[in-house]
Amino acid sequence: EVVLTQSPDTLSLSPGERATLSCRASQSISSSYLAWYQQKPGQAPRLLIFGASSRATDIPDNFSGSGSGTDFTLTITKLEPGDFAVYYCQHYGTSPATFGQGTRVEIK
Amino acid sequence: EIQLLESGGSLVQPGGSLRLSCAASGFSFSSYAMNWVRQAPGKGVECVSVINSAGIHTYYADSVKGRFTISRDNSKNTLYLQMDGLREEDTAIYYCARSAGTYTNNPLHYWGQGTLVTVSS
């Protein structure tokens, strides 16, 4: 089973700043099977990125994903008030899929 | 509009059983793999089970294997999760989620709003 470890656990930033979230896999995985989700309080997660770098429908271009092998990154270029949330990476190359433990992006 | 509406969550005693349902609308249900994902209070998300579009292939997290059974009725556009031998650690919001394609190795494109299962004596 692929274990995903996200860092940091919490990121404290101000609106307008750049956020860089990391997801490390316990073994090399295909970038085709790496996704990122955003979850706001009281809501279900929302798909942001799939295939490591492809944005899902209606996701703005200030969200971008990159990486390969064991190291993947989600970047939010300029934080807006609605971007403060918890972010999860997911590996869906095996079933059922596995998620990282999440990174909380909070207002500094 | 794509909609996923979960139901069936409630308070149940340890060792009890529960069946969750997810009614789907707004898309061709029989063309997509479907998932159950749970989130314990204040915790992260865990994919509990997934079933392919035809209902032939099913997969389970080790934490529920042998106790939970996923199934689907494509004629009723409905996904199910039969939960037996429930434990306190199964307490969570259970989400129904649609995969992006027919097979199970796809990202989770659409989610329902969840149904709460509480296991407690």
Précis, in short:
The complex is a heterodimer of chains A (108) and B (121). In chain A, 0% of the residues lie in helices and 55% in strands.
Structure in words:
The complex is a heterodimer of chains A (108) and B (121). With 108 residues, chain A is an all-beta fold. Chain A is 0% helix and 55% strand. Chain A is built from no helices and ten strands. The radius of gyration of chain A is 13 Å and the shape is globular. Chain B is mainly beta and 121 residues long. In chain B, 0% of the residues lie in helices and 50% in strands. Chain B has no helices and eleven strands. The chains are: A mainly beta (108), B mainly beta (121). At the A-B interface, strand 4, strand 5 and strand 9 of A face strand 5 and strand 10 of B.
Our measurement of the CA-to-CA distance between the termini of chain B, rounded to an integer number of angstroms, reads: 40 Å
Q: Give helix % range of chain B.
A: under 10%
Number of strands of chain A: 10
Note the run of SSEs of chain A as H and E.
Answer: EEEEEEEEEE
Helix fraction of chain A, binned, reads under 10%
The biggest beta sheet of chain A is recorded as:
7 strands, mixed
Strand proportion of chain A, as a percent range, falls in over 45%
Q: So what's the oligomer here? A: heterodimer
Let me know the average pLDDT of chain B.
97
> How large is the share of residues in beta strands of chain B?
over 45%
Tally of helical runs of chain A: 0
Instruction: Count interface residues per chain for the largest interface.
Output: A-B, 24 and 26 residues
